[in-house]
Amino acid sequence: MKKLLIYLKDYKKESVLGPLFKLLEASFELTVPLVVASMIDVGIADGDKGYIVKMCLIMAALGLIGLTCSVTAQFFAAKAAVGFATKLRHGLFEHIEKLSFSQMDKEGTSTLITRMTSDINQVQSGVNLVLRLFLRSPFIVFGAMIMAFTVDVKGALVFVVVIPVLSVIVFGIMLISIPLFKKVQGALDRVLGITRENLTGVRVIRAFGEEETEIRKFDEETDNLRHMQMVAARISALMNPLTYIVVNAGLIALIYVGGVRVEAGILTQGQVVALVNYMSQILVELVKLANLIITVTKAVACGNRIQGIFEIPAGMEQQAGAVNEKNNSGETGTVEFDHVSLRYYKGGEEALTDIHFKAKQGDTIGVIGGTGSGKSSLVNLIPRFYDVEKGSVKVDGKDVREYDLTQLRDKIGVVMQKAVLFKGTIRENLLWGNENASEEELWEALRTAQAEEFVLQKKKRLDEMIEQEGRNLSGGQKQRLSIARALVKKPEILILDDSASALDYATDAALRKSLKQMPGETTVFIVSQRASSLMHADTIIVLDDGNVAGMGTHDELLKDCQVYQEIYYSQFERTGESGKKEDINA
Amino acid sequence: MKGDKKSIKQKETLMKVLKYIKPYSFLLILTVVMAAVSVALTLYLPILTGNAVDMLTLFFAPSETGGSGKIDMDSVRIWAGIFDVLIKMAVVILLTALTQWIMNICNNKIVYSIIQDIRKKAFRRLEELPLKYLDAHSHGDIVSRVVADVDQFADGLLIGFTQLFTGVITILGTLGFMLSVNVGITVVVVVITPVSLFVASFIAKKTFSMFKLQSETRGEQTALINEMIGNQKVVQAFNREVETLEKFDEINARLEKCSLRAIFFSSLTNPCTRFVNSLVYTGVGLTGALAVLRGGLTVGQLTCFLSYANQYTKPFNEISGVITELQNALACAARIFELIEEEPQVPDGVDAVALQNVEGRVDLENVSFSYVPDKKLIEGLNLHVKPGQRIAIVGPTGCGKTTIINLLMRFYDVDGGSISVDDNNIQDITRKSLRTSYGMVLQDTWLKKGTIRDNIVVGKPDATEEEIISAAKASHAHSFIKRLPDGYDTVIGEDGGSLSGGQKQLLCITRVMLSLPPMLILDEATSSIDTRTEIKIQKAFAAMMEGRTSFIVAHRLSTIQNADVILVMKDGHIIEQGSHEELLAKKGFYANLYQSQFAIA
Description:
The structure holds two protein chains of two kinds. Chain A is α/β, with parallel strands linked by helices.
């Protein structure tokens, strides 16, 4: 939380002026009992009506000044809090954008989104409240004590005893209840979890007739939640009664001490009234403070969650010095894997083991293998979405870790498994590949990606709006547009990561054909589960459990790679070769 | 007019809330009594304080009449009087604290019990709701009703109980006390105070549109964050970080502007109402002091009047806030009640029988069904399955394959015609016995939070270790389970957590392999599993299907070639029906589909 405060630094003026005006207002508030005291002691004692009216006018004036001060304070506080939140959001968004793929995988998208939105909102209201009120309460409490000293030192000693006792109670209850509230939150999380689980799994639960068991489980969790809530509530329910007792015990003591001092002729009755008033001001302030503490506690918790994200070091480490250096190896469009191994988590299994190959400019490389065999992992290493554990990946003869990331990724066009488009026109989406692409270049990319036809059918063609996540397009259309987007980039290296899965076989074939005919020498990586998609590749890499099970052309592999044979025949059984088939499927 | 409707709905909701409170009426009465007692005591305290202060005046009286011995006498008497009052004060204070504490505990107990009741009821309804409802509503929305809305409702109710109760009682109490002390000054207080309410509601009205703009802008920003962070990998792949940030900043700047306005203007409420209060205070001071001069009031009474004025105005400040809070709570309650009152599925008939010793004869007779009334999907569907037959269903997306499964499992009821199992209409047998007669593996795998073992034994809780392991071996899941850190006792997170799609599907298959029900439904059961493993599982499937009526939906034609009957569906109709060879010979839709899959460019 503390480190987030640097985002307040542009609002130094506001963050100082806000509380200052608030304190000013509080000091005016504190003088009111004094005015009342002199009204009683002078005005009433002397029967001076004029004096009484004058004192009342002063009180009204104090109220008006108080209003002005507090409005000013609110303005500064709001400005600082909102500005702080705006800067914080900017900072956090910028930071999240820099996170690497493995960091994103680890954190998960949904929690990052909650932190960007609701957590920051909580912190904003916390900062606003603190600037406005948090200083005020202790100020009034201590201010009341100091004012009491100006009235009478001995009487004020009562305050010296009362205030520490109050602080112990308030902070004691806070310290005990914060962890309890955390437990309540945890119990609530479980209630949420089981509800969500029951919604997503409703078919399975009903299929197995498990409704009763689930209800029993839910009841257990809600019972537990209620129990935790009650425990937490019992502790915090003590706050008001206890502080009430302490403050009023102080009141009794004040009257007693006041009595002694009045008897001795040291104090006037009005002064005793003033002391009593200060004591009740403390009580009022304490009630406010108790409510405030909950908000602030929440804000601190949220602040810590945000802080947690900031503490993730941003992105991939870049080697200093190598960043803007010109590539002098003279190669373009080559990709080389030098005994590469990859592990996503420390201690986890290797996702890739000892991958070694080299692709020349203009080559088409097919990558095939079963679920979880490491196909996507392999191609994700080329644009350095992840870092290798052992070995190295070289693009154009230079280790990817020695590139400036932007420079590296500019060379590479990636089409991911999940076709993602953004809200905006088709044109805007395509221009992601290259801001300066001409109209002709856009259409050319669409043509190659087999998307020209359906874009032409749209009423506004390139200016047709795409909704968020491309909801108004079919899966195949989305895939073709995302391929076109990568083509607009005119990359040296094009990666198609299982990106034709929603296309029917004919379109898939046409796409591969037009990719082949593309002008220039683009190195293409095609990842697929379908043998038909990549059987014409120059080299096919067959992966099995992160290992290379075979490498070569289709014909070579079909001859001597058992894994490839199995994949191929599982997809291309012809009734003619049914001896094998019977064995497999019977 | 609109407002009327809204208030009627609010009233209805309120009545429903009261029904939930009813079981706790004893606690409710207790808390109201405690509130009244504590307020009365709180108000009595200033009177005692005033008395004590007044007694201090007596110290001056004797010194004017002289006589030092007398002073001692008087002072002893005065002290005795003061102590008397102080002891009373102490008792009052302790009692107040006690009643406050009891009230707090009661309030918490009432509120937390009510929301527990509501949650349980909502969850039970969830288990009974027809899939028609659950499929049509966003799960996020339902979850937020059960969790967030109930929570919000609890907060509002709690604030309502604690602040509204005591607030109203305080206002009434102070009014009574003030009237008993002095009518004139009371009138001053009563006349000025409502001004603060006017001020508060004026500001609230003015700021409403600002808040609306703020939440709209916030929504816009959240959508962008969702889109960009959700697809961060694409953003990074295209080096679009800077442009995205610019777009974000544009919305962020707008949000800053409208947030500032909304927050600042709404925060004016408090200073303004407090200003009104200070005017009340001054008014009381002025009229009070003048009354003292006229002799109608003692100084002690003035002191206690001033503190009443403070206590009287405070609830007015709070109540305006509480009312919005309560309205919000009622709105949340209405959303939960909507869910609870949703029509549940038709319960099993009283004479519904449990299906036993299933042979596996399934007949669909002239079945028609549609999800939306005016968009017909399945019409006049007839199908007769003999025990042990393998039925494969193929066809393009959206042709109604999954719908047939929904009907077989009675997740949805047919609109016309009938479905029967072993000559029992499925509407006349219990849902549970029907559903447990089928073993189902779906494309969308579902695993619950818990251990691997918990997930496997769902259909057969009393399975032995050997049974579990042999089922896992049959589904080829054993080898990967063995490699997990704690084997079968490895805890997996929500929705399968770190397992891959294929592994999750293997576990779902194991689940069915273990419970071995008399009939099977496999809806794209191997879609996430690579073709090699699939071939291995096919063997196990084949063994399992032996003698069991099975329904298989698949898009990989290779997996269904061996079915006894292949149904080719298109637009809700069965357009072709027959064995693989027969259909190929027909050279129809199926033959086309089959050829296209193996066409090589």
